[in-house]
Each structure stands twice: as structure tokens, then as C-alpha cells.
């Protein structure tokens, strides 16, 4: 099972290894303490001493990606993730890639390069949402990934219709986040919070509205 997991998620795991290699190569050149937090104006307002300041991001993303690789094996048999396995592997790899990108940005700023970590990070998150939104309609009903409400989990038709609605909304939220963050990071953050809230909240409410149980119908009679 371990070897199968390593093969299945080799791109994501290779990206995590690249993150660790980057930190190992730059460790002696990176300052102590390391910048770890930026305020809404893009100014550094938090630091962390070595070695945690250097390794905190690789550790966090290693935990996140490792947990994601375990979810398909933990999914109940009635909610398999195999039908969209390729999409899920790509999402895990993108999350690992986001970690590598943020780690690179933090290192670059720590070494004196004039980059905006909030701007570049929000742009990357926005693009991730665009990609995810494009795939939403292809995600089949499962227990861990997607818009999981009592109504989407109870009825495959509700799941499909909910995610077809969510796809364009998530893409719009991501596009707004990336565009506004490139102009002004604070606006990008607002777009991310509000846009994501609407992009996932509206379909969740929609799943309740279209559920056959909402209308007092048995699932087999609902189309």
C-alpha cells in the first residue's frame, strides 16, 4: 500500500522533496529570524527563529499533502473516490506546488528580493480556484472532497447539479482574486473571502433547495 501511494502521488511527493531540498540548500544563507507573516499592507509583522522559521512551511505542507493522500483509502465504500482519481491526484500535486511557491517567495524576501508575498500568494490561490472550478463538475459523489452537504451526499443527482452550479462560481471567485490581488493585495484578500463564501455557500443552499426531501418526494421520483 505504501509503494502504491508513493507511485500514485509521486508528483506531489516529489514537489515536497524539492521544497525540503530548497530549504536545505539555502539554510545557511537564510536570516535568523525568518519572516513568517505579513499584514494587509504587505509588511512583515511576524518572524520565527531558526530552525522553525526555515522548516515550518515544508512541515505544514507535508502534513497537509500526506493527509490528502490517505483520504481515498479512508473513504467509505459507498462514496468511492476512484472515478475522479486523476483529478484528485492533480489537486494534491497543485497543493504541493502551492507550498513550494510560497516557500520560494518567503525565502526570496528573506534574502532581500523585493517581492510581495501576499500579492503573489493570493494570485496563486486565485489560479488554483480557477483550475478547481473547471473540474468541479467532474467530481463524483464522495465523502471528503467537494460540496458535502446532507443533500448532496444523500442523492447523486443533487450532487451533480450542485457541482455544475459551483464550477463557474468557483472559477469567477478565483479569477477575481487573482486579478484584484495583482492590483492590490488587500482587495484580493477581500475577493478571496467573499468570493469563496459565495462560490461554496450558494451551491450548498441550492443543494437544499433542489433536494427531493425538501419537496417531500422520494429520491427515486426526483429528477
How would you sum up this structure, described in words?
By secondary structure, the chain is mainly alpha-helical. It is built from eight helices and two strands. The chain folds into two domains: 1-114, no CATH class; 116-223, no CATH class. 68% of the residues lie in helices and 4% in strands. Helix 2 packs parallel to helix 4 and helix 5 (117-135) packs antiparallel against helix 7.
How are the SSEs placed, and which strands pair?
Blueprint: H1 2-8, H2 10-26, E1 34-38, E2 44-48, H3 52-74, H4 85-110, H5 117-135, H6 150-154, H7 156-183, H8 185-210
Antiparallel strand pairs: 1-2
Helix pairs in contact: 2-3, 2-4, 3-4, 4-5, 5-7, 5-8, 7-8
Q: Helix count?
A: 8
Largest sheet: 2 strands, antiparallel
**Chain-averaged pLDDT:** 92
Helix content: 55-70%
H and E string: HHEEHHHHHH
What proportion strand? under 5%
How many strand elements? Answer: 2
The order of strands across the largest sheet is 1-2
What is the radius of gyration? 20 Å
The structural class is mainly alpha
Spatial shape: globular
Residue ranges: pLDDT <50 for 5 or more in a row?
none
Domains counted in the coordinates: how many? 2
Between the first and last Cα atoms, what is the distance in angstroms? 40 Å
Amino acid at each position: 500500500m505504501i509503494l502504491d501511494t508513493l507511485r500514485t502521488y509521486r508528483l506531489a511527493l516529489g514537489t515536497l522533496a524539492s521544497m525540503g531540498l530548497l530549504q536545505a540548500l539555502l539554510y545557511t544563507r537564510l536570516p535568523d529570524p525568518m519572516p513568517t507573516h505579513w499584514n494587509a499592507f504587505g509588511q512583515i509583522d511576524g518572524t520565527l527563529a531558526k530552525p522553525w522559521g526555515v522548516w515550518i512551511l515544508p512541515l505544514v505542507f507535508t502534513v497537509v499533502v500526506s493527509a490528502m493522500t490517505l483520504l481515498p483509502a479512508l473513504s467509505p465504500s459507498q462514496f468511492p473516490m476512484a472515478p475522479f482519481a486523476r483529478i484528485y491526484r492533480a489537486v494534491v500535486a497543485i497543493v504541493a506546488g502551492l507550498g513550494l511557491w510560497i516557500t520560494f517567495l518567503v525565502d526570496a524576501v528573506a534574502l532581500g528580493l523585493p517581492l510581495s508575498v501576499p500579492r503573489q500568494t493570493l494570485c496563486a490561490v486565485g489560479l488554483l480556484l480557477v483550475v478547481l472550478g473547471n473540474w468541479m463538475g467532474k467530481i463524483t459523489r464522495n465523502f471528503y472532497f467537494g460540496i458535502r452537504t446532507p443533500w448532496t451526499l444523500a442523492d447523486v443527482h443533487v450532487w451533480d447539479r450542485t457541482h455544475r452550479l459551483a464550477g463557474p462560481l468557483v472559477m469567477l471567485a478565483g479569477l477575481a482574486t487573482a486579478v484584484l490581488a495583482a492590483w492590490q493585495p488587500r482587495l484580493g484578500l477581500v475577493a478571496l473571502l467573499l468570493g469563496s463564501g459565495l462560490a461554496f455557500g450558494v451551491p450548498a443552499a441550492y443543494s437544499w433547495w433542489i433536494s427531493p426531501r425538501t419537496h417531500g418526494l422520494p429520491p427515486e421520483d426526483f429528477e
